Amino acid sequence: MSEAGAITVLLQRLSAGEREAHSALLPLVYADLRRIAARHLAGERAGHTLSPTALVHEAWLRLSAETALAPEDRRAFFAIAARRMRQVLVDHARRRDAAKRGGGERAEVTLSGLAADGGDRIDILALDQALERLEAADPRKAQVVELRYFAGVEMTDIADLLGISRATAQRDWEVARAFLLDALA
Fold it and tell me: Taking the CB of residue 3, how many other CB atoms lie within 10 A of it?
């Protein structure tokens, strides 16, 4: 059985309530989770205190604690994992800001992939708030951003995952990107 097939089988076992599937799943997905974590951290400020390994481990702990985790395939699993990593980074930024209370530097990420020039630095908490507003207005567009920007999923795979055409996924990405850039301006 291929690695992708083994992951899907383990996810099905996990969905069926077999908690032991978590321990068998980690070795198969660890390298991909580290790639996603490195992508998340690539836009962070220099000297960030979380490493890709720490980010993967914290996200894995959150995923393991979810009793209702039931992704239907590996793409859905990695989309959920990317969201948990984003939540870890946001929580980390909030703790850091709370420790500095007003005078400290803010946790920032670059907007590469969102901005046309790809180099603008923005506050990760502001990005999270803008994504929450986008999700309230249009949940699918927020999903497209999470999959494309945070998980690095290709547009064709996003379309398949969300059950929409590639053209619709591309339009959603462009509208969402414009919304976020406007919200962060």
Answer: 12
- Whole-angstrom distance, CA of residue 10 vs CA of residue 68: 15
Query: Which amino acid, residue 21?
Result: A
Cα(134)–Cα(61) distance, integer angstroms: 27
Sign of CA dihedral 40, 91, 54, 140: negative
- Cα–Cα distance measured from residue 149 to residue 139, given in angstroms and rounded to the nearest whole number: 15
Model confidence over 81-138: pLDDT tens digits? Answer: 888 888 888 888 788 766 665 544 555 555 555 554 445 566 778 888 899 999 999 9
Residue 142 structure tokens = 């927020």
The pTM for the full model equals: 0.69
- Mention every residue, 6+ apart, whose C-beta is less than 8 A from residue 30: 56
CA distance 118 to 181: 11
